UniProtKB/TrEMBL annotation:
Keywords: Membrane, Transmembrane, Transmembrane helix
Name of this chain's protein: MFS transporter
Source taxonomy: Bacteria, Pseudomonadati, Pseudomonadota, Betaproteobacteria, Rhodocyclales
Domain of life: Bacteria
Stored Gene3D superfamilies: MFS general substrate transporter like domains
Pfam families listed in its UniProt record: MFS_1
Major facilitator superfamily (MFS) profile domain: residues covered: 1-389
GO function terms (MF aspect): transmembrane transporter activity
Regions that span the bilayer: 38-60, 72-100, 147-170, 209-231, 237-260, 272-291, 297-320, 332-357, 363-383
Species whose genome carries this gene: Azoarcus taiwanensis
PANTHER family per the UniProt record, alphabetical: BLL3282 PROTEIN (PTHR23527)
InterPro entries registered for this protein in UniProt: MFS (IPR011701), MFS-Transporter (IPR052952), MFS_dom (IPR020846), MFS_trans_sf (IPR036259)
């Protein structure tokens, strides 16, 4: 039940965040702004996610993970509803509200699953829950265009908002059981917002993985943002064929999240596996940039499937490892601090990639540069072992957090 609930919440929040890009062509034509401005909207969503993820630890401790998840669903619903006003100020606020709702969902679900999942199954369970992100994208892509045809773009936005509200209501019966560890007297302060970041940097193993996730998140979003344009402009593929390649990469990401979670539980330590996945995604990026021009379509499809399976499939293993390394009762806060760094890469990656493209005139240079950086990070993870935290080091880390 905790897994099903967190998976459903994750999928709907993801669907809410990806509904505006699907609505963009229809909405932009009516509002009178370029559809390309959706890139700024997505950036604002992730900025909101970065900020709200930092405060998630105290909020989860005070109100409970389910209550915070319900609040996130309501915030996403409010953001979608506000977007239907159709004026620039409302749209900016809409993006921030959706981001504020998106950010705490993963820390909240990690808090729940860390309490209810056996240690030897955490990799697979966290990875299965994280399939809610691409699942939400698939739902947005499959359902929202039809709803636009039936009810217009405003009706489609309000329909997705209603889905979020319904999910918030459906989770209420299990709230008491899953939020039984909340502390109604826990203090919430602005100074406490930086606590999750202090916690991340106090534990070296967590800090290392969080910094690596900055580049993994950047690579993931650059793949999903620029692949279709790259394949159409520099490979000469038709738009439908390029869209098919992206869909296959996304589907491979879902499969990869499940596969790598199972592998982390049974075969390969999470840190080493994340390093191998980094080497894999970097190799795919380098092949796509340097060698894949002129390949048959089938081989390009296979390469991009492998790219998606690694660059989109790493999240569950990463979050499960953060949960394992977090002090008892601090999974939500630790995850929130780590995700602040991850989302920073998501925000910074596409503009950096676009800057490389503008300087060189080709997308291949962007994939080449990002591939080389991620390759070095992956080799570092594979070739170096995480240091075990002894009791004295753990006490020192706690003192740094309290300071």
């Amino acid at each position: 039940m905790p897994l099903l609930i967190t998976l459903g919440i994750q999928a709907l929040v993801s669907m809410a965040s990806l509904t505006p890009p699907v609505l963009a062509p229809a909405a932009a034509a009516e509002i009178g702004v370029p559809a390309s401005l959706i890139g700024l909207f997505v950036g604002l969503v992730y900025i909101g996610s970065m900020l709200s993820s930092l405060g998630s630890g105290d909020l989860i401790g005070r109100f409970g993970a389910i209550r915070i998840s319900q609040a996130c669903l309501i915030l996403c619903a409010a953001g979608l509803a506000l977007a239907t006003v159709g004026v620039p100020a409302a749209i900016v606020l809409s993006a921030l509200l959706i981001g504020f709702g998106y950010g705490p969902v993963t820390p909240a679900s990690s808090h729940i699953l860390a309490r209810t999942t056996p240690a030897n199954r955490m990799g697979f369970v966290f990875s299965l829950k994280q399939t809610g992100v691409p699942l939400g994208g698939m739902l947005a892509g499959a359902l929202v265009p039809t709803m636009v045809l039936l009810a217009g773009w405003r009706g489609a936005a309000l329909a997705v908002a209603l889905f979020c509200v319904v999910m918030a209501v459906l989770t209420q019966p299990i709230r008491a059981a899953l939020d039984d560890d909340r502390d109604a007297h826990r203090r919430i302060s602005l100074s406490g917002v930086l606590g999750p970041l202090r916690m991340v940097f106090a534990y070296k193993a967590v800090r290392d993985l969080a910094i690596c996730s900055f580049f993994f998140g950047a690579m993931q979003l650059c793949l999903t943002t620029f692949l279709v344009t790259y394949l159409t402009e520099e490979f000469g593929l038709r738009l439908v064929a390029a869209g098919l390649v992206l869909s296959v990469a996304q589907a491979a990401g879902i499969f990869g999240r499940l596969l790598w979670g199972w592998v982390a539980d049974h075969w390969i330590a999470s840190r080493i596996l994340l390093g191998l996945l980094a080497v894999g995604m970097a190799s795919c990026a380098l092949l796509l940039a340097v060698y894949a021009h002129g390949w048959p379509f089938a081989w390009v499809l296979v390469l991009c499937a492998a790219f998606g399976g690694t660059a989109i499939g790493w999240n569950g293993v990463y979050l499960a490892e953060i949960a394992r390394l977090a002090p008892a009762g601090q999974t939500g806060a630790m995850t929130g601090g780590a995700l602040f760094i991850t989302y920073s890469g998501v925000v910074a990656g596409p503009p950096l990639f676009a800057g490389i493209v503008s300087m060189t005139g080709e997308h291949a240079s962007g994939f080449l540069a990002f591939g080389l950086i991620v390759m070095l990070i992956g080799m570092s993870l594979v070739l170096t072992r995480a240091q075990r935290t002894d009791p004295e080091a753990d006490r020192q880390a706690r003192r740094r957090i309290n300071q």
